[in-house]
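[Meeting: bench + compute handoff]

Bench side (C.D.) handed over the final construct sequence. Compute side (W.E.) agreed to return the predicted structure before the next meeting so the bench team could plan truncations. Sequence as handed over:
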Amino acid sequence: MPSTPVRVEGRCLVEGAAQGTLLFADVGLSFWGGVDPATGEVIDRHHPLSGERLGARVLAIPGGRGSCTGSSVMMELISNGHAPAALVLAEADEILTLGVLVAEVIFQRTLPVVCVGREAFDRLRGQGFVRIEGNAVTLSGRRPNDGWQGTDGTLSSPPPTDVQLTEQDRRLLDGAHGKAAQVAMQIVLRMAAIQGAEQLLDVTQAHIDGCIYTGPASLRFAEQLVQWGAKVRVPTTLNAISVDQRRWRELGVDPALGEPASALGDAYMAMGAQMSFTCAPYLLDTAPKAGEQIVWAESNAVVYANSVLGARTQKYPDFLDICIALCGRAPLAGCHLDARRKAGLIVEVPVLGAVDDSFYPLLGYHIGHLAGRNIPLIRGLEHAAPSLDDLKAFGAAFATTSAAPLFHIAGVTPQALAPDTWDPVLPVKNVDIAGLLASWRELNNARDNHVDVVSLGNPHFSLSEFAALAKLCAGRHKHSQVMLAITCGRAVLEQARAGGHLAPLEAFGATLVTDTCWCMLGEPVIPPQATTLMTNSGKFAHYAPGLVGRGVHFASLAECVEAACTATTSGQPPMWLRPVTRPGNRSHV
């Protein structure tokens, strides 16, 4: 550690002054699913900070990753006193910053956020104590004994902005359309300034992720908007909420969660949002078209909209999504712009022969790690013909480990169909069997081969997934000690019923849950005595150990059904992932 303090200059995203012991990690952190909003403990069991508590410490991470709900968790931590003293980032992170900005508005409490760049960020490694004042980050080996006090809960002044405003924008900002729209426009402009946007653009629709209940602060925010007369200005759908709104009592959910979680959904519907309650809005009839400018939150939905549909949305944080819906205007930045949709990395995938449906979520999870914040162009799948369900599973897992808002698959996704769209001079990373196997082992952390719960539908099940599952379950019945449950949206559930897919599933003994998703389900929907679950979702396999405290098996849909029937699994990787040794050759597939 240095004998004299070292000063690093950065870019202040949220003004303030603070100091504390440094908590450093060189891996991005998803606050939702990675940090307990009630205690500030890091619960992502794959993260190097797992088990650490953030309260009163200066958190230094490259940036966020994963869920858009990280902003809601950040606001919750600020409101209950378990937030970091300050946040130091290598790169600007809109999700975490937005949580701080909204906490200013609702709770009049804040914390400083500073972006220092990659080179300066690396200098924080190994430091013991950090002081933040404005743009300055001062590093020292121990706490200075100088009696210095930072700010405590004071509001930061709005940053200057040169965003061009229309007459309608000014009317919204002046309060002509009510207090809710006025505050929403103020928050939109704060974010536009952070993103360097010079203009706002019209959006055609919104998908709101802030309807997930993370604690009292998330409900207070929504109800405050309702009290201020909030009404959405564009067609707006709602993400999966934290309970099955029609059946949470029947499912045994504690009213301490069921009542506020249901009330949160009601609050957003009171603003004019549709009762869609799905984390897969791309399965609805209202799914956007290529080139359509939208505001979507929910990480898997954002990645799917940008990558597979060719629509245009940033990875919008919770709360900024509803603010834009109330204004109908978004910063002209990020993936709304052609230049920000280009690949920054090529990922080469080897030919693996016959694979099962666990390949795409595993590959997405692995490539997300390789890509980090870079948009990847994935080559090697030109003749693989992945289905829309494959791309859904890939995108959800990719969005779990990457901070990038989209991916391109050469010859498959709309912006990478023609070879002349591929940039051959980008840096290249290669996928190999050893790397995929390491990712498979990361997702398979169960200590034994027993299976208590089979969890399907993360993201929400599609109609074609229902058809595939019904075929696998036809004429069979699950083991009496195993619970197999499927989460889905109400609209797809009715389509599956009309298609005749529910009868074989009900005969099999499956449980159907709507409105919510596996990332929000806990006890007693998951039986308290259950110790191990199995899933075909790379996303849920990552989050489940921290969210529900169970061991996980990750496998194909067919293996999940087999495990539901036998209450056990081999625990072995799929055949296509096992190296084959031939005489005189190295191990290969």
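W.E. noted at the follow-up: Confidence is low (pLDDT under 50) at residues 581-589. C.D. will use this when planning the next construct.
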